[in-house]
Amino acid sequence: MKRHSDHIDDLIARVKKDYQIVMKEVDIHDPETRRTIGEADLIGIINGEWHLYEVKSGDNLEKAKKQLFKLKRYLEDYHDIKLFYYSGKLKEVKEIC
Question: What are the tens digits of pLDDT across the range 18-30?
């Protein structure tokens, strides 16, 4: 069985050509308190737009959405954000609206 980080690496191999910068397992901090609020499994940056990816080994879209929306609340004042979900089980990327 693949580990979570293996699924992230699979996703990086799949999308890295689409971005100017790709960052793996990035801690996100509240800009005012500096408290850690979560971790983005993958961030791809292109032309100033940040694409946040949540990777799940199984197929837990609802949990991924909850985590992504939490990160977006803290980052959307500073960056243009798009959210994506990657299922390691299905090998699919879905944009979250």
Answer: 999 999 999 999 8
Question: SS in 3 state form for the chain?
Answer: CCCHHHHHHHHHHHHHHHCCEEEEEEEEECCCCCCEEEEEEEEEEECCEEEEEEEECCCCHHHHHHHHHHHHHHHCCCCEEEEEEEECCCCEEEEEC
How far apart are alpha carbons 3 and 86 in whole angstroms? 14
Q: What is the pLDDT of residues 43-54, one digit of tens each?
A: 999 999 999 999
Domains and CATH numbers, the chain: 4-96 (3.90.320.10)
